[in-house]
Amino acid sequence: MLKPLLLLTLIALSVATTCLAQDRPASNSRKAVTLYYKAEEAAQARDFNKALAYLDEAIERDPKYADAYLKIASLHRAMGNKPEVFENLQKGLSLKPFNAGLMNSYFDLADLYFERGDYENARKNFEFFLRGKPRNGRMTDFARQQIQSAEFAAEAMKKPVSFNPVRLPSNVNRFELQYFPSTTADQRHLIFTARAGHRPDQDENIFVSQYRDNQWSPPSSISPAINTSANEGAATISGDGKTIVFTSCNRPDSQGDCDLYISFRSGDEWSKPKNMGTVVNSKAWDSQPSLSADGRTLYFTSTRPGGIGKEDIWVTRLNEDGSWQKPENMGEPVNSKGRDMAPFIHVSGSTLYFVSDGHLGMGGLDVFMTKQDNKSKWGAPENMGYPLNTHADEGSLFITADNKKGYYSRQEMTEAGAATIQLYELDVPENWRSKVKSTYAQGRVYHADTKKPIAAVVQLYDVNADSLVQQVNSDKVSGEYTIVLSDGRQYGLYVSAPGFLMNSLHFDYTSRKSLDPVALDVYLKPIKSGAAIVLNNLFFDTGQYKLERESKTELDKLITFMRQNPSIKIEISGHTDDIGSDADNKVLSERRARSVADYLRSNNVSKDRITSVGHGESKPVKPNTSDENRSQNRRIEMRVL
């Protein structure tokens, strides 16, 4: 990861002014001073090696010659030799009392201390810089920010977060560089970016590893349709594993430096990726995408105009017609004047993780999390603490749907001194977990008669809010679908396809203590005379026939179904359990069925297309021997006439 561009600019300013700010070089050795001036002449002639030789000789004459050390530091800075800059700044400044004219040297040394995680010495030298009353506002602001970070870091290190990252096995970490890990909602597929090495001919590609027999398989290229000789990376995959968005740079159809591309999976095949177009992509750098669980909301990083900092996080949403909306800047408090990057939206949609150097942290890019409140507003970002965050730049973090496992990458040095990036798995600490716990429902959609897979629309509604939470499509080849369920909600699940009766299911997670995955195959019945379904998301108080507010989603789905199929007629039938008298149950079932029919009629469904009937307790689907069975017998059905 690169250092902030602002800091590079500030260091360049510092290089240009350090020598000018110093007093006349002083030494007890006249010969050492003479050698110092010869070194200056050689440096002006761009003969740095000769200049360094003069200065080394000067130090031999006077080992406490502070200005010689500072001059050596400035020459090594120009040559890009950071270790030598650090060593000589330390020596030179330690031999001098505070001098406001050396404030830029204090700044440089403070920054180098910060790079090494030496927060106390970094703080002291930034304070020396500020004592010099600098006129450069950007350098002043940066120094104050780093002092705050140093103080924050010192406290964070006293209260480390307990987590035990474990490097993924070598059959997964088989590249020199691998990063941006993520999984599907069922955690059966691990997606990441990798490259064999640092050489330009070793390009980035997207790989997938499958979880089989309690271990990750060796990764393979995700698809020849996706990976090319260009760089493909920083990928995100939808919860059902059927939509992937990734970054690629300098393709013939690029809008800018790097663009976002999208591909869809049918069966085992990925479609040819498409550039997401000028609405989503800009002429600037667009990268690091993160899809919501249903693939209908996309967060990403961009340097486009209109942001708050250099890199900002933006968000776009999918329209009903399949087009994407114009991206919006997430704004404050998420985005800052610094760099805000690598967003990851948890499948629950309630918590966003990202990296930033613009919020209070430990230096460089730290990992932060922000949570939505009850009004869908993002809260102030929280630093995720030490030792996940350090003085170095951190990468992205991914947390699974159940909040139990996390994946991230870490830069390391090999024994040979080469930089490598490895993937790690961790057990997620409680305070890092998403605000909302999630699981998933997974299965296949079949034709009820032929038992063949169907391409269907699977929609998940929050029936309390009457709002669409997720929408996915079952695979047209296999019929597979995956949809995420989160705690604290009462869901209506609707599966529909042209020519079929919809299937409505109910999930109540408002009081569940555990969230286990749900295996659920769905069979859709063709629309024909006699075909019937249970309407599972219609609600009545005990012994009452007035429809409760939570029934609106199902009722409106019925209205849509009737409008899409204008030639059919239906019967709405009510059924009860065996509690109470036969006569009372018969009346109650009739009134409940009539309430549904009346709602349809009041919403412009022709009354001659709807009949209603009550069967009381006469047609149970299960013996009335338990509460569970009785709840299934209390039902409203729709039958095609």
TrEMBL record:
The keyword Membrane applies. It is found in: Cell outer membrane. It comes from the Bacteria. Residues 527-641 form the OmpA-like domain. InterPro entries: 6-blade_b-propeller_TolB-like, Bact_OuterMem_StrucFunc, OMP_bac, OmpA-like, OMPA-like_CS, OmpA-like_sf, TPR-like_helical_dom_sf, TPR_rpt. This is Tetratricopeptide repeat-containing protein. Pfam families: OmpA, PD40, TPR_16, TPR_8. Residues 1-21 form the signal peptide. TPR repeats lie at residues 32-65, 66-99, 103-136. Its main location: membrane. PROSITE patterns: OMPA_1, OMPA_2, TPR. Residues 607-641 are annotated as: Disordered. Gene3D superfamilies: OmpA-like domain (3.30.1330.60), Tetratricopeptide repeat domain (1.25.40.10), TolB, C-terminal domain (2.120.10.30). The keyword Lipid metabolism does not apply. Keywords: Cell outer membrane, Membrane, Signal, TPR repeat. GO terms for cellular component: cell outer membrane.
